[in-house]
Amino acid sequence: MNRIRGHNLARNFLSRSPSKSLISRGYVAPIQDLNFLIKDVYKFPEHYKKLGFDPEACGEDVIDMVVSETAKFGENVLAPLQEVGDTEGCKYVDKHTIKTPSGYKEAYEQYCEGGWQGLPYPEELGGQGMPQSMALFHSEILATANWTWGMYPGLSKGAINTIYSHGSEELKEKYLQRMISGEWTGTMCLTEPQCGSDLNQVSTKAEPLGDGKYKINGTKIFISCGEHDMTNNIIHCVLARLPGAPEGTKGISLFLVPKHKVSDDGEISSEFNGVSTGRIEDKMGCHGSSTCEINFEDAEGYLIGTENKGMNHMFTFINTSRLGTSIQGVAAAELSFQNALWYTKERRAFRALNGTQDPKHVADPIIVHGDIRKMLLIQKAVAEGGRSMIYDCARLADEMVVAMESGDKKKHDEIDDRLGFMTPILKGFLTEMGIESAQIGIQLYGGHGYIKSNKQEQVYRDVRISAIWEGTTGIQALDLLGRKIFRKGENMKPIRDHCNRLRQFAWDHMWSGATPEIKSHAKELYWKAVEWQFLTHSIGLRAMKDKDVVGVTSVDYLMYSGHVTLAEHWLKLEVAANDKLKEGSSNKEFYESKIKIADFVYRNMLPRTVALKKMIIYPSKSVMTMKANQFSFDHAL
Question: What does the pLDDT average to over 322-337?
Answer without folding.
Answer: 91
